[in-house]
User: Fold these one by one.
Assistant:
Number 1:
Amino acid sequence: MKNFKLLCLIGLLLLAQACSSPSGQTASTENPAPDQSSFLDYSGLESELSGGARMIRISTPKGEFDVWTKRVGNNPTMKVLLLHGGPGGTHEAFECFDSYLPKAGIEYYYYDQLGSHYSDQPNDTSLWNIPRFVEEVEQVRKALKLDKSNFYLLGHSWGGILATEYALKYQDNLKGLIISNMVSSIPSYNKYADEVLGPQMPAEVLTEIKAIEVKNDFTNPRYMELLMPHFYTKHALRMPLEQWPEPVMRMFNHMNQTVYVQMQGPSEFGIRGNASLLHWDRSKDLPQINVPTLTIGGEHDTMDPKHMEWMASQFPHGRYLYCPNGSHMSFYDDQKTYFAGLVDFIKDVDRGEEM
């Protein structure tokens, strides 16, 4: 059981978010508070019976499968589809969005990607690749009837990679894009881990971690014993482990390790070995994304916050949200900053304000 819990924690590095704009903006007060009775009224909707939850049938090269989604709220012009991290994580890490988006009147959708938690979990490893996941998101979009007039796509960590790839192929369907706590280059991410994050650890701790990784001894309990106090609680979620929010712990217990290891690799200190994401790099392609785009980065993130700020400058209509107290899951450890900036961005785009 102890080893199982340790393995369930593997995946935090690329999971699941962030921040304040450089100008120190707070949530807009121009829009009045939504009418909560109409916001939560599902009368006459297809998902009324299930409270907004539904399975969506998707087609893949290996057959048809079902993926789980859940709608929260009603807003004809602001609808956010949430792409969780991992790969192989779950929607659960996003549950804190319940505390902020409803009162802002923003409709949003929880979604477990194929292979994750409430969705089907096929054993065919050929399914775990970026192009297939992009087509999955497009099929989900169509089923939910999201379009250019209302569709915001928010991807956190691995979900940020997926959101970037979706936008590069299907940006004509988007109203706005949010890339939360994810850089545009895995080689750059690995360099940051080696040159910035690693040296912040005590030298003897880093040496022991590297020795374990060289031996591929990732199930060794000592690996997590070293990473939890010296890495996770400093760069993944800046709270003592015993204070980590219940949805976060639940998400890790439901992590699909097969998907995670195939795409991200077994190391918690960068993406290494033969992981399929090892060479992913879209840094030169960002100017092709013309929709309003928000990047979010935390000062203590596993990802380089300067790189995420630079990304915003590459989009023709980009904005950066900086979380001074945030790490990789800034929507928990710099929560108010994160959501104030996120809500501002969504409402600014809805009003047609230029980035």
Number 2:
Amino acid sequence: MMSMTCHSFELGRTRLDFIACGCTSNTSFDHFPVRNCAKGVLNKGFKARKLLCCRREIGRCGVFSTKTPEGFLSGIANGPPPVLDVMKESTSPSVLSNMFDVVAEDLQTLNKNLQSIVGAENPVLMSAAEQIFGAGGKRMRPALVFLVSRATAGIVGLKELTKEHRRLAEIIEMIHTASLIHDDVLDESDMRRGKATVHQLYGTRVAVLAGDFMFAQSSWYLANLENLEVIKLISQVIKDFASGEIKQASSLFDCDVELEEYLIKSYYKTASLIAASTKGAAIFSGVHSDISEQMYQYGKNLGLSFQVVDDILDFTQSAEQLGKPAGSDLAKGNLTAPVIFALEKETKLRDIIDSEFCETGSLEEAIDIVKNCGGIDRARDLAREKADEAVKNLECLPPSSFRLALEQMVNYNLERIK
């Protein structure tokens, strides 16, 4: 179970927040040599793979240590359901036409149940849950649960979804929501889906506790499913979320970060939950383990493709489209696929990133380099590669409207960068 608490320390004029995830380390915070920067306060000496990793701009530090698992990449409510809003985002509506219609009733039921299963023991936590659930969203993860559930149920002759299928979809969305609440705290985001974030409305303390509560509540419902394989699968996801944040914090402004490291971090932060969603759905259908493994690989490859596309959009879309400044990941020192590829071609980019954008206009120059030296194009190729693998993973399923929708989900993702 992941639990986060925030501690603030004053150092001169700089406020440093420490996010601790159940760590029992006795690491000392006594001495911090700090260098003032035009756009942030950072110590340049703390670089990649150090225990202490500082974030530029927001001045928050994380103290963690983590190891990468070996061999990872080799494979192991009211009204219409908000999920249909996803169709408004595509430049090619035909790709998304009726994509989730085949599970629309399932999603409507889920939307009605989400707030009630959070529980009403604490009015503040309930209000926080209403804030985040009420903000809508695509409900992509539970939609994938329902699509895989119905696509695999037909293989074994199931005519209707089980209560375990439906509860899994609810658990997945709760875990995703909890991670969003914590992410908004870490990123100091004031808006999500056009609404004020939980921490903006209720403060950081309540937001962290609300996220913890949802993780705990989802774990309770998960345990009551009484399927050890699924329990282990989903529990690993919660650990992966923390590992992803740790890996990201420990590699800020690190120009030596490799593509494999980026993909592992992307798996932890994005693809892990999607992979667990699709595999868990297949397990509850009772299909052969070979098929459930293919559903896991489908979710992993789809999730990785989604993350790469999101990282491309951070450079290609406007601030209005993104809802945040363009190149914001790069500004924070988070080097994504387009940057990693660009670093292979342009040595000047390394110098700019090493300077942590202290010079006026240096961030804009770095963004231009990424755009003009092939970093975006190579990232597009990577997104397509993962998308192709995801489609191949679906070949084990018999033809159906549900399999078609799963394929359309892959195509929709690629449409975002055309």
Number 3:
Amino acid sequence: MDPSELQTLYNIMETLSSDQKWATTYPNPCKPSTSWVGIECKPGVADSHHHVTRLDFGSPPNPNCKKTATFPSQIFQLPYLQSVFFFQCFTKTKTTISMSKTTPQPSSLQQLSLRSNPSLVGSIPSQLFSTLSSLQILTLSQSKISGAIAPEISKLRSLVHLDLSYNQLGGSIPTELTELRNLVGLDLSYNSLTGSVPNTIGRLGMLQKLDLSSNSLTGSVPNSIGKLSSLVFMALSNNRFHGKLPFGLRNLKGLEYLIMDNNPMSIELPTELGQLPKLQELRLANSNYSGGIPASFSQLSNLTTLSLQNNRLTGTIPVGIANLSHIYHLNVSKNLLSGEIPFDSSFLKRLGKNLDLSENMELCLNPMEAYEHAKLGIDVCNRSNAARAGDGVTPLKTSQGRVVGISSRPDHLYFLCFLFSVCWILNIS
């Protein structure tokens, strides 16, 4: 190895780990017979030296990080370094992401992954975005990084995956972020981001995963999201979104997961969601939706999970929901639904405890499936009373159990009287 590169490597090792006396134990760390786990080297193209291309610390069998480990800014001085992984390295001693003044321009680093480092604090230096022009994967998750996302992030034009989740980031999502046209995955969840989602988010045409959940984002979901035709996963739950969902959502034909729980939407459920043929999970709970469950939801043939609990939904459950052969989790509890449940015994048994219909006062069960009523927490329908009322079915009291009610039609009464008379005469004789 080049002597200066070797010394830089030893400095990094001493900063991070006390597992070994690195300089004496590994005098030739890139030599195959003496190399250590956690380091990868490759021969240079323009010279005869081996160069460090990968560092991996914190997850076995790689070297452990010591309690006093701090972020080694020297990693940016290794000219051929392509990948860095620090997992649970900074757990006891507070440290920040720092950049050395002698950092080469540009860096060859393609992946920087720092996960589960609770003592990693401070902001992301804008110099990092300006320097790492070759970066394709940036993961700085599950730490205590704060501050705003600098607009210089737009300089990471090669970025494919960006994960800044589970931190303490604040401020708004910078519009400049939507200039990263190669992004496939964007995860900003579990932070303290505010403001609205940039209207220009539709520029991220290659995006497959978008997770903005558990922030304090406001406003409506921007119309341009309908342009994200490659989107497979979208999570916007636990924010303050409200207002109509964009009509263009129906264009997301590849969307498999739509998770939007816990938002004060205060609208009717959009029928357009029934036009997403690959949708597997639809979670819209605790969001003040009103109106009925659209019949178009019965067209979601790949649906496995439908969560609509704790809203203000009214009307009946669409009959077609019972024909969704892949569904295994259905929760419509704590609504204002009414009428007879359109599910037969095989459907009820298949879902079992994954079916929750509770706290819908006017919802009731077909008398033919009455044996299930105790498990479901709802009453059995009284069809005879409903027939007289002419406006649907009404539930029996729980204490009535499986009683269905006797019809009061005159011809039925005459027949019953006739049977009683015959039995009385036979007894006398």
